[in-house]
């Protein structure tokens, strides 16, 4: 994170040390830190943004293009032959790293597949492998995977027991947001323009690659609006 902050500051034409970056692994840690007065920018996942945007006054300025491909796609994986529709999730558990946001899972990820029954339990599960083992054993467990997780699925020794039953639309993976009005607009614009150029230098590209990013790019407003509307419908 120090290398990323230094590269971002340099790209913005700021002096070394003018910009610092801190990573928080937990939801609470991130929310608490963004409540501090010196937190002017936030690089957040899409479900975090949808959950916390109003409370933290997050305004998306850029999105992250990730490896592989550009946007993020989420997949629902289950025991082969068990799930034919969203309605069949009655009484199931849905596990995954996005499970801390049930509205994101129900609406943004699975809304295009159909209405997920209220009886389906959605929960956070950071360890996808153990959740996938449970699904492969034939229980009523389905697993939400991001693009990287879905790409690795065929390498599992029990992959033949599983199948992808639904996929989301292409979505922004992460968003760079301003936090309220803490950062003067001119300073925010300098950082934004600098980050848009960061992948063009070998050093900048290497730092982004180490963070599983390709580049920063303008926000896909239509995709983000669709994701937000699906989230809000599921939340209501």
What sequence of helices (H) and strands (E) makes up the elements?
Answer: HHEHEEEHEHEHEEHHEH
- Please indicate the percent range of residues in DSSP E strands (runs of 2 or more): 15-25%
Q: What's the CATH C level of the largest domain?
A: Alpha Beta
- Rg estimate, integer Å: 19 Å
* Class derived from helix and strand content: alpha+beta
- Residue stretches low in confidence (pLDDT < 50, at least 5 long) are none
Strand adjacency order, main sheet: 5-4-6-3-7
Question: How many domains would you count in the coordinates?
Answer: 2
Percent helix, as a range, is: 25-40%
Mean pLDDT: 92
Would you count the extended β strands for me? 9
Distance between the termini: 37 Å
CATH homologous superfamily label of the largest domain:
Periplasmic binding protein-like II
CATH topology value of the largest domain: D-Maltodextrin-Binding Protein, domain 2
Major sheet: 5 strands, mixed
The quaternary organization reads as single chain
| CATH architecture annotation of the largest domain | 3-Layer(aba) Sandwich
Count of DSSP H/I helices: 9
Silhouette: globular
Explain this structure:
The protein is an alpha+beta fold. It folds into two domains: 2-69 and 171-235, 3-Layer(aba) Sandwich (D-Maltodextrin-Binding Protein, domain 2); 75-167, D-Maltodextrin-Binding Protein, domain 2 (3-Layer(aba) Sandwich), CATH 3.40.190. The chain contains nine helices and nine strands. A five-stranded mixed sheet has the order 5-4-6-3-7, sandwiched between helices. Helix 4 (102-109) links the parallel strand 4 (93-96) and strand 5. Helix 4 crosses helix 9. The chain is globular. The two termini are 37 Å apart. The model has no long low-confidence stretch (mean pLDDT 92).
